[in-house]
User: Fold these one by one.
Assistant:
Number 1:
Amino acid sequence: MASAPPGPGPARSTVAALGNGAPPLVAVLLLSSAAMAYEVLLTRLFSIILWHHFAYMMISVALLGYGAAGTFVAVAQRALLPRFEAVFAGCAALFGATAIAGFVLAQRVAFNPLEILWDPGQPLRLVAVYGLLFVPFFCAATAICVTFTRFASLPHRIYSVDILGAGAGSLGVLGALFLLAPTDVLRLAAATGIAAGAVALARGSVPPRRLAAVLFAAAAVVPFVLPAAWTGLRPSEYKELSQTLTIDGTRIVAERSSPLGLLTVVESASVPFRHAPGLSLNATMEPPPQLALFTDGEGLSALTRYDGRREPLAYLDQVTSALPYHLLRKPRVLVLGAGAGADVLQALYHEARAVDAVELDPQVIDLVQQRFADFSGAPYGAPGVRAHVGEARGFVAARGERWDLIQVALLDAFGASSAGLYALSESYLYTVEALQEYLAHLEPGGLLAITRWVNLPPRDVLKLFATAVAALERSGAPPAQRLALIRGWKTATLLVKNGAFTPADIAALREFCRARSFDVAYFPGIDAAETNRYNVLDRPDFHDGAIALLGAGRGDFIDRYKFDIAPATDDRPYFFHFFRWRALPELLALKARGGLPLLEWGYPVLVATLVQAVAASLLLILLPLGVLTRRAQDPATPAAFALRVAAYFLAIGFAFMFVEIAFIQKFLLLLAHPLYAVAVVLCSFLLFAGLGSWFSGRLPPKGEGPLRRPVTGAVAAIGALCLLYLVVLPWLFRLLMPLPDPLRILFSIALIAPLAFAMGMPFPLGLARTAARAPALVPWAWGVNGCASVVAAILATVLAIHAGFAAVVVLAVLLYGLAAAAFPR
Amino acid sequence: MKHLLGIGRILAFLLLAMAGAPGSAQHDFDAQRRGMVDEIAALARETAFETGKPALDARVIAVLGKVPRHRFVPADQLGAAYRNRPLPIGHGQTISQPYIVALMTDLLQVRPGDAVLEIGTGSGYQAAILAELTQTVCTIEIVPPLAREAEERLRTLGYAGVRTRVGDGYYGWADCGPFDAIIVTAAASHVPPPLIQQLKPGGRMVIPVGAPFLAQQLMLVEKNRDGGIVTRQILPVRFVPLTGKH
């Protein structure tokens, strides 16, 4: 069957001549899962060697390989289809080879994102990285697209295994990352891809079967015998870990890898770490011996030696976060983001009555409590201390208890926070709703203490202050009486009290700051003359900001501020997004004077990614259209039909991604763990969409009643469910929050199932219609959909930053409506 | 093949031209350095930065015009040596943007005869600048290869008076001090108490804060005559965070 020569006629007759047969569903499933695993894995790998936001940028552009494959197959289908098995197997094997080679070579391109605005050579290197990562996605997508085109009458089945494979891949890679090092997972993904090719060949006649055996052997052997030196990770020399390792006497003493990050513990034999961020200049003591703990090569946190004695921990009383212990006596403390344990030691130093410590990554707790127990003194097992593995926000929400002090630790690294690298990370820790939740869990007179880095001009500290003001107002408390803000030269601490600050509180706060040369920025009754004394700023920006944010002119102040300091909410959880377009020209003009560091990178990089993806997509969509319409002198393919096909597949590509991304975010709050959320939500979406796709193949093209076309029914169901969920979920989540993990997961799956089932239908229905009327357009339609998905993923974040996730969902519903109207007739 | 030969010839010619004309290359660097200094002086005049000073000290400007920055950058960065930008020098370290070097040096207010300590030698450029302003400059670098290269470079360029050391800067350099000025270019989570102790009354310490290539703000620590400490945080640029109120 694969030996038929390419016919001279239009593709339609080629397909007809080839007959039907069965598509290689197992091979598609394997390849699709390998490609998805590779995509997730690249984010992990580039987060380790570079920084997360550039990982996102590179991968988004590389994913346009899907769109390009649609274009390629559309143009070359007459040559490709008759050799279907060979093309599929070749592409799958090439995916395997280039998945490893692409990453290995991309690592060797000396791309340094930190120099991108200084060095005109850097953008070219970035393009080289795109090119290298593009190839594997292009290969995998070509194999899958050629399957859709070759078996154009069976899109329901192919699409369902395609997305089931993607679901399996995303889940599989998360599991594999718990068990294996990221580079070993890379080998596994490559091997899976090659095996998919072998499976496709094995269906054919005798000679390909022999080839299939060879390919199976290659899959089983080649990726695993490549020298480790080739695939070894080469982190940027500008990452904190790399810099630390240049010091004599440093060595890595432990490494733990999981989907949450690569943890590295470093010992320094000759030069102690002495990590004490923002230590008072009046302090004379040196921190005790420490080990350094890095996550993905950044964000040093100290694992401090503790032998049960208090005195060596005295330095922990010389930082701004010690303030609440001077206002409370022997409090019951909740530490959110306990990490390597500095805040727990601080609580122990201050003789806290009890400490609950919450940490997301169980491996961190294991390192502190088990692996380095002799060194750390196992503080999580100290009398009165309880360690909890979990996400901070979810932990608090699920508990009925109250604490005297809730301490939110300084989780992110200063370098990354000052460069705006977190701008794109959603954080549900610092939203108005989160602060309300914390306040509701404080004993009367209890304190919420949040410590942040001091960036100038102030950004996150003022945003935090504004967020606290909003949270207090929503809870019906007078903000001006309940807030206090102090700052050192490197850190600032905000206190929010469940009750009004008393004169005794204020006296203790003043004394705490005076003894440590910290500045007061706000407390009830503050006099401007008291501020900006020890660590002098050109203007008392923190004090002025706090006063403005408490006053009637708050809105005006936030509007006029050159950074975005409007409070973050659960619907727009971008606490770290400060960028404003109107400040950009000024900052670029200040480049020569060292003004560039004030530029918050994350957002402009995202927008640059979006612009690139849109430009490349347009090219990929329009280019083959010219060729196809010129070639198809077929009356069945009028331009109007092609336009409908494009509009339909663009709309559903955007809409599917919008809904999926927005609901991953929404369910993150319920599942209270980023990994569970991604795994559960993504897999439920893909699994039930796959079932929906399979089911749609059984639907008659036209039924009865107003929703007589299947696509109209599916779209109506999607719209109704989306809008219903937007209204009901916040309320429902509050009810479900206290339930144990398995039940919350079960409820999540049950909520997603009907929505995803309906969302699985529009794509195969549209493709079947296209195949019936103009089969030459099938690969093109697939490519259009691929481009739309890539652009949509980026656009969803941009939209969420500006308008919130609810708006993203509403837009998706409108797009589905548009798709129903544009359905190719 | 013919193309390759042609390209080879051109390359050979270029190499010969470069090797055969050291004088003109040197001349070129001198001109570039003058350009850089003019640019920095102009920028500083326009900025009137946040210390309230109208411009940079004339001595600092003069010294920037004297130290051959191109001898402190790696060979592949020669072309950018006098551009007003930070440059990579290997081992994850950078040589600061010249404008920031000027600003930090100006903040230190070094007078002839002052004792100056630098933590984080890096390429040695900042140490050379300081050595042009005073006789006693001591500098400590924690990364051994960087320290060796910088020591060698400083000696070759006639800055043999600069005392260099490999190791931990936390305890300063008591034998060399006490100091009138200290500059800490190495990233530190806090200001080491021993450094404050080694600062003379009336002395000044400058610490740039930020990630590589992104020195965001400068911290100036001043020790009063009575030993009291005041710190200032200085943005290198004039950037008012509120619009409509300049």
Number 2:
Amino acid sequence: MRAPTKIAGARLTDIVGEQNSSFDPGELAAYEIGGLTPSGMARPGSAEEVAGLVRMAAAERLAVIPCGARTKLKIGLAPERYDLAIDMTRLDRVAAYDPGDLTLGVEAGCGLTKLQSVLAEHRQFLPLAVPWFRRTTVGGTIATGVDTPLRQRFGMARDYILGMEFVNGEGVAAKSGGRVVKNVTGYDLHKLMIGALGTLGIMTKINFRTFPLPLESRAFVARFEDSKGAFELCDRVAESALAPLTMEIFSPQVSGLFSSDVAARMEPKPLDPGFLSPKHWAFTSGFAGNEAVLSRYERDMTGMAERCGAAGVTVLAQEQIAAALGRKREFIPIALESSPATTILKMGVLPRKMNEILARAGRFADEAGMRWAAMARGVGVIYFALLPEALDENARSRAATIAEQMMAAVAALDGHATIPWCPCDWKSSLPVCGRPREDFPQMAKLKTLFDPNRILAPGRFVGGL
Amino acid sequence: MKLTFVQINRELVRALERLLGRDGVLSSREDLLLYEYDGSVEVARPQCVVFPRSTEDVIGIVRLANEYKIPMVGRGAGTGLSGGALAREGGVLIVFSRMNRILSIDIENRRAVVQPGVVNFELSRAVADARLHFAPDPSSQKACTIGGNVSENAGGPHTLAYGVTTNHVLGMKVVLPTGEVVSMGGAAVDTPGYDLTGLFVGSEGTLALVTEITVKLTPLPEAVKTLLAVFDSVDDATETVVDITARGITPAACEMLDGWTLRAVEAYVHAGFPLDSAAVLLLEVDGLRESVETQATDVAEVCSLHHAREVRVARDAAERDLLWKGRKNAFGAVGRLSPTYYVQDGVIPRTKLPATLRRIDEIGKRNGFEIGNIFHAGDGNLHPIILFDARDPRQFKRAVSTADEIIQHCISVGGSITGEHGVGMEKDRLMPLLFSEAELGFMRRVRDAFNPAGLLNPGKIFPSGKGCGETRIRPLPVAGSVTG
């Protein structure tokens, strides 16, 4: 790490104008990442201005980090250098929306709520029910690769992003894909931008396939004495002809988190008391369709839950779903605010291994006397949140031990784990990026190609890329 | 001492034979003739053809190609439609037909690991008892390989609802053109790091040779209904597609055949397409029993609203299979009618379908060509078929310029030059219509980062500066061949 380089103010204001740049330490504090505060901030209003800023940065070897609503800057490693924050929130236009084609082009700084309300006018939506939903931008969502409960049915953003425009580390505007729903012209460079934390390029416009809003939906909750029954139900649903929109399993501790004041601030709608219980593991699933379809889901899921030994089931009607989905969506921010040192392991495992992995994680945490809560998605992703009582060395050392134990356990079962969120000071001593990967040299090759001067969020990504 | 081309060839063939055995290498002229072609109109002959059986074999081949500095090109079943698997600049053609094992199937987690030479349909057949399938279903699925699907990011009729190949590939083992072996992605989702799998799928064999593929398996739907909607005007058929899309109905498949094409197909396949109609839509809805009935009714209503004179529902699996046979064998049927045909693969926003079909008709008439249309209407992925006689050089030149005019129209309405067939050596010269020189230059640098000596599949995707006159046309497609 080094202190930020002083930026020639005139050059910055030449590109974005005085009113869209700042060198005020008070204002710049809001752009802090990993203990580093930049020496300047620019708010470009066009892709050309973004390219101009990057060219200037490349010429002066300034490290730049793009950001949107700054809700997820805690993900990733601390940057090696950080001179200029590029705030993308002025690039917030819905550039092209063709409801008849179910396609959309939107600038990266557009807020998700604004975008979803534009789509809702045509009874369409994007399945991006992501954390910090009310504040986050489209670009921030895609750059951090955060997932959504709706991935159970719709997949990840990579499955419905049609193309992208971005500026690479040399300040060259590039694009890949297009705005048609099927396209194999050229390399899919945009897939590399997803989840890359802005280390390969700065996205300026993203094209999506949109989806029709379901007419009617409901949610199903089944409670179990232990995790085994909940995961068994998850397996049975996955094997069946049912294709729910969401499918999550929550550990008993989540009930407390979701009924806390923190949760109420994140998602104000009151939660149905039947949703989660502090004594039970919960299987929760949302589904949509006509009345006959909804009845079929209810009937089949109830039958399967009984066969898996459920202690009780609840069906939430349309009006109760928003609060439940809202909390599912906001699990990570709620967990982060529930402890002074929340450390979240994200584990990708085969769906059938989830129970085994989670049982081990729970045991390791219990043995270390660490409070925890977990959310598992049906597709094979577990968020395991360690919730220490204090931010101190004792907690750090216990968290590090649990993390190492889990890295080994997950790797032995063909999975992988990372630590997207933990206290900033712990990052250097926790296995934040997971275990070294065989394909890392190829990733490093791409980083050098896209960002030869190493000015785009240097050091923030996996392996210090 | 500098070796002559012939000496290099002889020495290389001997070295390859030592590596793969004599039955693993073809180098006689008559054998090589068979590998000059794929499903496109392009022709290019390799210096030799090799058949690896393992990743180690592939590494050995790559090392030899580097040693002798000759090009190498991967190939599956050769059903591709853009010359992607042709040795445009000669060299070693690496045919994966002997790497055709399904390495593992994990029914519980719905995963399979396959070698690249596994035939697409064979994987679906292997997991059918567990009511699973591999969702990408190109029309050539009974012949094409999963390695080829990965290279081209293949689509198919059911990709409208299920997505294309890239949506179903989780990881790969590849041999880079430098001889390094790299595993990317994996059986679990959300592998940390850049999405290398996403970059390599659809890279048309220009970045690496794929030797293992981890794929997702998808449950078969509980219920399926296939509908045939018959129209007296092409406009009514295309307006129906626009309306179905706008209403948010997503059928599992939505295919269109115009009158000319369906008559050609009917004469060959006897699928039951009405000979006096102007167009038919082949529509499929699937899912839970409770939803399929409603979806079918909704789709039928939209068809009727746009003056469909008949909406027929396939009564049973046999009738459904016959309708699909008509669709999937259409290109074979066309091959019976003309010495040569040229299939395009442009994509347009779906709202532009009616105007674009009218434009294609007008372009064909103006240039004196019969143009048939059979395509993935729900995706806006057109396949205009231009019939011509390649023995007449003037006609050939006009066919190419007619095709270009169609593609330019697709681009002008916000579309793209290829939806599923790939750029290959057929459409490389059209790339500047979509990408600036700087953008193409950047993509080229991505290629060069992985393929530094340019030995892997040279002369593909990027414009070479050669004119279209270089394209040679083969005489007659085999009737009944499965492409599209």
Number 3:
Amino acid sequence: MRMIVKVDLSSLNSTKPHEYAIRFLFGGLLTMLTGLIAKEYGPVIGGLFLAFPAIFPASVTLIEKHEKQKKQKVGYDGTNRGRKAASLEAAGASIGALALVFFAFILYRCLPVYSAWLMLIIAGLSWLALSGLFWFLRKKARR
Amino acid sequence: MTDLLLRFLIGGTVVSFFAILGDILRPKSFAGLFGAAPSIALATLALTIVHNGKIYAAIEARSMIAGAFALYVYAAAASWILMRFKPSALLVTLALLPLWLGVSFSIWHLCLR
């Protein structure tokens, strides 16, 4: 079977240290914030923010910028290319979000019954497997 | 204070890990999956289990179902707007944050309250 998912380590070079720092900062602050919201308003409201699009704006903006820069290096404007790349990234995130619904459902039903740490691992792996499956099915349906 | 610092460090590390995975994977639509990775959730729930127990964490996970569905609506809307119109990605993703809030709180109000 043809490999349809690839690893491209060269893209790590196009991300600058301050861009890594911004994502770390956003992730850390959002995790702190969800903890504070749960403490102040309880777990029902706090739980909503576990699926807050935390670093999504930063990630999509970075992708748009990098794709635009790539095109500009070879003499093109790159604006449309950057926007299309950002749109594809967002489409992928929507599939990942569907899998996230199942991730949350698994934890909601199984955390009270089974080992908490085991369930975190199983839910995480389920998210990975389901999001990959949904992505593959969508890709196949579009062919 | 120590708890908040721990949350910051663990959250930042987990989010960065998933973000790097998203950076190195191709094609872009597949890498995009990691834009909705359970990064904040894993960091927060792990700490919640330690401090408040697994029943408390299960209640948070129940609400997260609504938040995750709202994330689906938010990301699908962002993708459509970026493809259909010509705004910048930053403008779209920030302008749509109230949509995420609206959908998640509506589901919470209708089904979980």
Number 4:
Amino acid sequence: MAHDTHHHHKESFFTKYIFSQDHKMIGKQYLLTAIFMGAIGITLSALFRMKLGWPDTQFSILESVLGSDAAPDGMLDSNWYLGLVTLHGTIMVFFVLTGGLSGTFSNLLIPLQVGARDMASGLLNMIAYWLFFLSSVLMAASLFIETGPAMAGWTVYPPLSVLEEFQPGSGLGMTLWLLSMTVFIASSLLGGINYIVTILNLRTKGMSMTRLPLTIWAFFITAILGVLSFPVLLSAAVLLLMDRGFGTSFYMSDIVTSSGALDATGGSPILYEHLFWFLGHPEVYIILLPALGMTSEIISTCSRKPIFGYRAMIGSMLAIGFLSFIVWGHHMFLTGMNPFLGGVFTFTTLLIAVPSAIKAFNYITTIWKGNVMMTPAMLFCIGSVSTFISGGVTGIILADSALDISQHDTYFVVGHFHIVMGMTAILGMFAGIYHWFPKMYGKSMNKRMGMVHFWVTIVTGYGVFLPMHFLGEGGLPRRYYENTNFPMFDHFLDLNILISVFATIGVLSQLIFFFNFFYSIFRGPKASLNPWNANTLEWTTPLEHVHGNWIGEIPTVYRWPYDYSKPGKENDFVPQTVPLDDNEEEH
Amino acid sequence: MEGKFVIIIAVALFFIALVQLMKIYDLAAKVRGNKSQEKVTRGENMLMANLMLVFMVFFFGFIIWLIIKYGANAGLYKAASEHGEKLDWLLMINWYIILPVFFLTNSLLFIFSWRYYHREERKALYYPHNNKLEFVWTILPLIALTIIIVFGIRTWNDIMYNKEKGQVVEVYAYQFGWLVRYAGVDNQLGEANYKLVSSTNPLGVITDKSINDTYEEIDTKVLSIDQELKENRNANGDLLIPKSKADKKLEELERLKRRKYRIEAAIDKGESNLITYSSSDDDVIVQELHLVKDQPYTFIFRSKDVIHCPWLPHFRAQINSVPGMETSFKLTPTITTKEMRMMPEVQEHYKNINEIHNERKRRIGEEEEKVLFDYVLLCNKICGAGHSNMQLKVIVETQEEFENWIENNGDKKRLTFSGKEVSWSETKEQASL
């Protein structure tokens, strides 16, 4: 989109803040929506952790927050417990870490870092955001209906999710869930196509693919993964919708309800699992890669050192992206599928550990002999790498079909994926917010609060999820409303209290972030143009956002973005816009 | 209501306090002449770097404390099945590879962050890549993973490709409980079909009697719906009840007729029913799972309504139970319940569990009880409101004890489904004749 940058037309409030087609504004809109959804998501987790930590205590706060249907006399209802768990998972996975994370930063950073005036299609971009907004509203609304939200777990396996008779949440709540997800997928597809086209076509002069910052590579691969896998979830959702509403039986066969045998025959719930996880596993990397891309960028900038093994980093992201499409079966080792397939999926899944290990070692080598500025963003990156390692190694156990027999669906799994996917991505997202806040709002966030926020988050995060591995080793299944029906789990009572205490502190401590964020938008000190002395193009744009990003010509790029502390240079950074010296090697 | 009010006020006060603190902080910063929120001072850098080390120590300490306190199996003890021992061994191999990697890489990360914090006078090393180094850390994980993959897939094949047919036992899952069916002397389960499931035939076992019972049940329902519809029409044949309600009734009617038709077409073999479905004659349905030590078992799992997942933590065994399909798992128990209860670690553990259990009972005002170790089968796939209390008692015993139990319970608790009622011992005598 070739904008005439000198022609600065006056925008109304509506076109500037609401129906904006400017990628920076849309990025901020995604972020605000994600923060709102994130607040709901983590609050839900704090609420159901109360029940798990103190199974016999009545909390009047539960009744006042959730209403007397969900928590009569302050005791959480068991159906509603599952509802909270389901919505927590759905919101965090899709709305915060997919829509929020990649929506915010792909929108903000892709045009700024590749040197484009805007996204390839501003209109599609705007539509994508508003679909995301609509789907968020639908999902949040399902918390307010009498029969409760979807309750079948975030994977909503049929037949549980098909008939209201099996659980009340499979009625209207589930319908809303499916509608919301359908809209969400449409949004994510529009967004994804836009990102891919922008990266491929709108790079500025000199910005070859191997001069792209790793953030852009990460967003690029993420968008491809999304475009290839989300349609499969859409088909899964549509078939489920038809099973629920139109009497088809794609996912159902041989089912008996209290009113007798159902007609449905010939379908299989396993079909749904295949379709779901064909998205579900790439989804993990859709969540993870943007966070890893941003940590690569921030770690390099704040260590004042080029990212180690730039090409290896790209290669491993591509490898991870490719492999992520052929590993979905490891979620289904125990569905009774052919044991031969189990072996195949074990093999492909464990292969992912190789590119992941390369990434981890490259991060560590980047920090080695660096000159590490401990900005809040950098702290979150270090945390993110740590959780990536800690959660990654336990993945090796779950990837092993044999070991999965005794670990599947226990708390070991919950601990594993919350550390590797949840924490790594959330910490990466925080890092991104702290790092690019000056670019988004032209203000600085308070650094001390950022530091406190980091330490509380990492301590409580590990405090919650490390002990869960041991619950899992003790055989405790996930999604249990209470563990007190089995005396064999009684020795976990105190550990569960510990987890709940950490969870409550962790959730409350996010108030520090919310406060810092909103306070700084309005009252924060004015940011400088290039606060972290970074090389990438976004820091060459004016502080005040202008439509078209650069006043005048788009800068030309002469080098890769990681020339930090290059020998023979006066400064410890050389922006991409600085031409190479006569006999300077690129890198 | 007051609760809500207090919470709102507390939250509001918290934010006001924060705003005030921020103002003070801003003012103090101005006085000190340090306005920038971007530049991290040397003191802050050092503090954060040191905190990295402190955190690492606590982080590792926490994990080591957890490992010491809960150990590898966190209260599941030694595996009580043949394949379970292999799995535990494999798990330990994995931990021995994984834990050093975990501690090593995490310490490198935190130690480097601590060692190389920002100082103005230092300059970072320009070190964009080193192919040798990258090659090394591609190959090393590959080697470690090859070991893990080879051991893993071998164990998996070992367990899953076990061709030996053990004693057949069916576990049937429903919202929210389990039923167990022993295959009897012929070691063959009688065929079952979901269309025959009823309160008297909970597993839908096909027998001449269950087919006829189902016909009768369907006919009765059809009649009553017909009757109801007739009563709700006036002389002209117009409906007196809302059309939607009538449609529902008609739909139900059609469904019942279809069901009957399908039974007639696909299941009912008429006079040869008695011969075709005779293998169910010696099946026994019970509500507890009793297993004989060292006896190989082949479990068949079916589900009535939604996906469940039978999970036998002590035996390290689980597989989904999916409506519309049969899944199977082979398992040989190696330790009886009694032997397990005698093991010192179990006794010590259960002393502890009894204390915790009864302390809770006292707290919530329930009667105290003595808890003994028991094997258990629980549901490990989200299945609805009762998911967390879907348990089946499992007992491993000697052959003798088992015979004794099934003799008494096979008759007493047995849910009759066959035309002729036979007890476990009678069928055994017949078979030996």
